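ok trying again, last paste got cut off:
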Amino acid sequence: MKKLTFTLLAFSALLLSSCLKHDDNCCYVSYDPYFVAEKNGLAIYGYPATGKVGTDSIAVAGLSQDAGIVMHIKYTGKGVYQLTGNQAKYYQVVGKDTVSRYNVGTASGSSLEVTALDSINKIIGGKFNLKFVRTFPVTSSTYPDSVKFTKGQFVIALPK
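nice, full thing came through this time. structure:
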């Protein structure tokens, strides 16, 4: 009887200790970053990017070979961030030359909302609407005076 009890205790200890083994790869959470918006009713996609701006702000961006949108916010968590002045910019390039630049200026209606937060993996998601006014070139028959992006959505990793 002692041998049977000892065997059962040894087997239980072995079984329980094997379940406690630490695996660094056990909890990796993958995510699919994206950046999309509508411009003139057409969906546009950008490569999602982020970075630190100074000590207390982050940039949320969607970039492509011929254009980019960059938004700067003082990130404090979920919520709505109103964008004015140079907090959001849109630019177009041909080759390596910037051919047009826009910012939100003083127009109202431009905002970014962080709607989802994974604080463990440092991932945020949200939506945005932007109204831009051309700042370069000053006059142009090629580039419109204003550009609107609606129904914008993104998922990005927070900068380290």
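cool. The chain has a mean pLDDT of 86. Residues 2-19 form the longest helix (18 residues).
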